[in-house]
What does this fold into?
Amino acid sequence: MRTGTAQTRLVVLRGNSASGKSAVAAGVRERFGRGVALVGQDNLRRTVLRERDRPGAANIGLIDAVVRYALDAGFHVVLEGILYADHYGRMLARLRSDHRGPTHGYYLDVPFEETLRRHATKPIAEVVGADDLLSWYRPLDLLPGGTETVVGASSALADTVDRVLRESGLDRLPAVDR
It folds into this structure.
């Protein structure tokens, strides 16, 4: 089912835990202004459903529905999460295929050692340990078909936000007064 308009933008930010997905998503939204829906996998999966990440889980359909709803309402969407390729790949491919406007995918590639360093600065560092992070870590878990741009750990946050805005065309669109 087709979704969004030729003007709506869909940006998908994927990567391992502590790779900077949430920070980039927040930066894009802050810089753009109103009119960008921020859809976070962790919020829908962990907070709304309190569900484990596994193939066929209910959050996959919920993420799909929320993204489509926001696009159909005229919002640009930034979807961010670990979004393992084997769990979420089919849903993401359908979104890309069904979206009437441009879709841009980014994979934030951060080595495990850097993941540990960044994670140590988070409030959940006391609860989630290195063994948990290692069990979740998947190096270069790219979607098939070359649909994602790999952004390395050396890219500063501001540079990555600038890149996403520029490549998606959001830097040339007006914010929406909602």
Remarks:
- DSSP finds seven helices and five strands in the chain.
- The chain has one domain: 10-172.
